[in-house]
Structures are given as structure tokens and as C-alpha cells.
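Contributing: when you submit paired examples, paste them exactly as shown. First protein:
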Amino acid sequence: MIGAMGPQDAASDTPTPVFFLAGGTGISAETLGNLLLAQFPGLNFTRRKIPFITSVEKAAEVMAEIDAAMTDSVTPLAFSTVSDDPIRQVLQGTQAAFIDLFGSHLDTVERILHVNATHSAAALHGVGDTLRYDRRMKAIEFAMDHDDGASLRNLAQSDLILVAPSRCGKTPTSMYLALQHGLKVANYPLVPEDFDTGDLPRPIAQFADKCFGLLSTPARLSQVRGERRPGSTYATLAQCSFELRRAEAMYRAHRIPSINSAKMSVEEMAAVIMQSSRLPDLA
């Protein structure tokens, strides 16, 4: 249950300890928990993910660790997607604020479906579904093979082709879409030679309907490139501005949808891309 909140002050610099608890990898607990925390931008948090809580003994250890973070002025937050009832009951004994992201909604779903859930961590993460698991693994392999234009084979099999100047976020977005949504995503880097005519590069021209463009701001792109190649022409503000202008014009000319990745998380980018391109969640 949710413990009584301590006298925390929104203006306090003391960080609130946050724990993400899970019976599996903790991806869901971390993602959902951070989504809620993002609604409190003025507060400081320290985050710790504790995955694979698969026994009541481990749950007791975790509960003790959380309670040890309690102070007179700070109450920790514990976001949980643990599905096993006995383990969840142990965790609910914490004096911290326990936010059950799983069990609090499971009863409702069971009532609607008139079927008891398995309460299995494997089911929560899709491990029990061999076809879905294989689809994700094949999608990851495809994304790795077709990263940064490394391979142009089998582009016809791709669900999506991300196109962008270097360092706009193509690789992490491709991998996220593969891992989380089972999509086969290739990505193709735009280089200065590609901007001479304004045409789509020849290898991807026939797949324009699968393309999605990424942009950034000149300042952000220059900063990211500067960390990789400090002092290079590649990282100058002028070069970044040129490439982004030409890329945007290319997208517009060929009716390729695009987003600016400068202030977006990978999760946000993936959600916008899937919605804009009407891509199915295959995972």
C-alpha cells in the first residue's frame, strides 16, 4: 500500500529516492515510472532499477533496501510491475510509497475478460510467446545489418527506413523500434554528396514510401558531432546548418514525413514515427 508521505517540499534540493521494481527486466516499470516522474520537472530524483525479483526472499531484501532510504523528510517512491502475488505482497509491506503499476489494473482486466491472469513475469515481457520473441530477435538482427547504410540488401523487406544526416538519432531509434515493437528498420545516412541534387539517394529512392526523416537543430547537432570529432569541419555550426537545411528540403520535395529529434527521447520519437507511418506493433 502507499505509505504516508513525509514533509517533502517541492523546493527542496534533497533528491527523492526512486526504485523501479520488476520480476523481469524492469523496462516496463522504468518506462512507466519515468513517464509519471516527468510530470514533476522541478524535483530531483535518484533512480535505481531492481529487476528479476523472483522470490519472496529477494523481495524482502529489496523491501529492506527501500525502507533504509526513508528519512524524516524524504519518502522513497517504488514503482512496481511485479506480477507474482506472494512477491508483490511482500513488497507492498514497505513503508515507502508503493505504486503498483501492474496488480492495480490486473483485477479490472480479469473481470472484463472473465479469465484469471497467469501472473507470470514471462508473460509480461513476451518471453512465453515464441513467435513474438523470434520476431523481435529477427528485427534486431535486421536493424544491426542495415545500420548506417552498412547493407543495402533486403531493403524491400524493411518496415521502415530512417533517413537523416549523421548523428540525428537513427541508430538508437532503429534499435528501439526493433526491440520494443518487432519492426524491421533500416537506416540510411545522408552525406554532403547527397545534397548536390536534392534527389533521394539512389539506394533508397525506390523505397520513398517507407522512408521517415530525422532532423535536429544546428546547435544540438554541432554539439553531438563535436563530442565525436572535436575541431572538425563535420562538427561546425555552418556544416550542420547546411546539412539540416538540405535534408529538410529533400524530405519536403519527396513528401517524406520527418520529426526534429533535438528535444525528444527515443521513446517519444518511436511513438510519433509509428503513429505517423501507421506502423503496427509486431512485438
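Second protein:
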Amino acid sequence: MRFSIASLILLVAVPVAVSACEGDCIVEITNAFVTNYTNPVDLVMESVAKQISNMLPEHPGLATTMDLLRPVTDAYKSDAYNGMETAIFPSYFHGKCQRDGVDPPGCPNPDCPVVCGTPGSLVHFYGKLRYIAYNQTRQLLDTLTTPGSSIYGELERKVLDAANAHAKTRRMIRIYQRASPYGTVPLFLTKRNEDLKNQLRQIVDGIGPMLLEVCGGLDDGETNGLPDCSWEGAMKDYILSFP
């Protein structure tokens, strides 16, 4: 399966003048990356929804299975900004290039051991920045779909409810009821539900690789990979629009 992403035009507010990437600069650059990842994440979720459809009776349409995924998609939308900001600022890019609170000679300097959080430093280390944004997005999706988590539990319940409520399932139950009155139906439902749970786990295990495929894959893991989730030219221009 090969995904493609159309060129994305950043529609953001004109930044307020700042002396370094702080305040509005942090907020707007974080929002730009979250916005850029909207389409890749949507493509992954649509692929997951289609796979869920394939495992359900009668194979419901995309709108129905996307609704089943709402626990994940709603949680992603709620958590995406905070996770992205923390991953970029200050986990890697700090506001000032300081050691023990003191500016070293030549700071701000893109090659300072403590990476500056200035627009110039963000551009200088853009190869690293693109991976920070990608890894944060993938990690959040993986966390939300980890079996045992509350979000995954809600997703699993919705999928099982959809399967159990379907008319075809009811017909199958009636057939088994006529065949045997001695617990066949509970056994059938238990086995069928376990099979569905296993299939769902296999599907969500593929979310990380699906995002990687959407983003075009990794070349060297540091600078030249993720060609479809780079947005390098537009993002560099945007970052440098902040003083």
C-alpha cells in the first residue's frame, strides 16, 4: 500500500515579534506541526477503519467504522498539541543556549552543546526537528492504542458491540440455538469475541508502520528521511518569519 500526501499550505496567523522562539513563536510553530500531521494521521486512521470493516459482519462503510475509532481520534486531537510542544520545547530546543544559567561565548550558537531554541537553531537542526515531530506523533498514536489503556478499552468495546449488535450475528445465534441448547451460544460468542480482539490488536499494532509508510519512510534516521512528512521549505520559511 502506498500513500500520498498533497502539498500542504500553512495557514497561520502573522507572528508577533519575539527575541527568541518563546511565547507566540512556540505556540505557532507547534501548531504548524500538529496541523501538518492532520492529513497523515487521517490517512492512517482511514486505513485502520477499513481493516476494522473487513473484520466485522457485513463490512460496514467507512463512516461507520470511523465512528468506532472516535475514542482514539478524539483523544489524539485533545493531546496532540501538548505532546508536540513538550517534545520540541524544551525537551530538545531550549529557550537560551546556557550552561548553568550563564550564556557561553558566542551564544546564541546553533552548534552550542545545549541546543538553542531560536528560529535560526530550529532551521539549523531541521533534520532533527522533523524526526521529533514524527516520533511524537507516532508515540502518541501508539500510546492511545496500547491494549490495556482506557482509550483502547473503549475502542475494543465499541468494536465488539458493533459485531454483537449486527443482524447477521443474531441469525448465527439462532442457528446455534437450534443446533444445541447446552451452552453452545455462550461458547460461540466467547470464541468469536476473542477472535475479534486478536484481530483488532493486530490492526493497531500496524499503526506505527502505517504512519511511517505515509511519511515516505526513513533514509538515515536523522536528516533525509520522512520525505512526505518534512514540509522543509515551507516550515523553514515560516520558522524564520519569527525574529
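If you have annotations for the second protein, write them as plain sentences, like these:
The two ends are 42 Å apart (CA to CA).
Residues 6-19 have pLDDT under 50 and may be disordered.
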